[in-house]
From TrEMBL:
Keywords: Transferase. Gene3D superfamilies: Glycogen Phosphorylase B. InterPro entries: Glyco_trans_1 (IPR001296). Pfam families: Glycos_transf_1 (PF00534). This is Glycosyltransferase involved in cell wall bisynthesis. It comes from Alkalicoccus daliensis. GO terms for molecular function: glycosyltransferase activity. The keyword Nucleus does not apply.
Amino acid sequence: MKKLLIVSFDLEVGGVERSLISLLNELKDAPYEIDLFLYRHTGEFMEFIPKHVNLLPEAQEYATFRKSIKEIFLERNFKFGQVRLAAKWNASMQKIYLSLNEPGYRQMQEMWLKSMRYLPDIQGDYDLAVSYLWPHYTVLNKVKAHKKAAWIHTDFSTVEVNLKRDKEMWQKFNSIVAVSESCKEAFVNVHPALKEKIIVIENMASPHSIELEAGKEISNEMDKGKFKIITVARLSYAKGIDLAVEAAGILKSKGRDDFTWYIVGYGGELDKLKKLVKDNDLEDHIIFLGKKINPYPFLKQAHLYVQPSRYEGKAVTVTEAQIMKLPVLITNYATAASQVHHGINGFITELSPKGIAKGIMLLKDNETLRTQLIKGCAEYDFSSAKHLDRFHSLVRGQI
């Protein structure tokens, strides 16, 4: 029996975390012993870890990566506190001198590299060790395994890291796994020398489970009198919720204000986004629903799903909306073509507030097109069988 280790951060509500739970569920009958190591045992999805998975104990040193700097110092964990402060300062300087949009990637890179000497090894000897979230230094340096694989969940051409250090990390893995073909292509454009290492295994989802969850009742009904738009996303720069707010403003300015846009999710930009909504007098049109373990009943009530992202690997939430046969509008981010078949099971629009507004007006006005997209979703095979087969091939060393 093969012995597997999967390493990730935590199980807070998010697309990557949901895809991890789906993967673990799909491996229920596989001939593997599966250990799961999470840096911190937090998050609403903790209760969904399948019984066939062995959750390893939390290690205090790794848990610091999911705590604030203030928490770390209050716990008198000075080594890691100093590392975090140094990484944050270095990243803030690099943001200024390198004109970075998201210095958080540099900060994480610095933090992990400087922390390695303080971290304990993860005990065990594995056939395959999977690092499910970047950066992948833990599996690389602290795990003993015959084969190691690292996952990519985003469009890597947009990730602002120290490329030399990044390449040094990736090249030591046996396999690099991208969640879509476009995601793979973007990575190869950044690291062409690693082309032979990279394979594609898409995120897994269970249509049956999603349909069951969608049937559950919710206490707060969505506005029945208006056209209902929904977005499920982390409130961050990458997800482009600010672009959605601007698009809503354009719709209102054109007198097309018979809509309500529901945003499901949480993140660091919530206050900024609420202010943007208020400043544009859109409080009757944009509703922040917050974090939802089960977003599917809300998706079920909507007329249109919109993903206004600046970049993605392959958005789990878009696939889930398609599984629920909901018309989907996404922006033309670099990997969009691997997310939907334009005009068949989704619609791709220009990546701008104007483009988003234009796409919404088109789909709102054209019920025939919406019906066509629903039909395309209904006819598409969203099952995980072929992706699961590729995962098994990875374990067996065949890819």
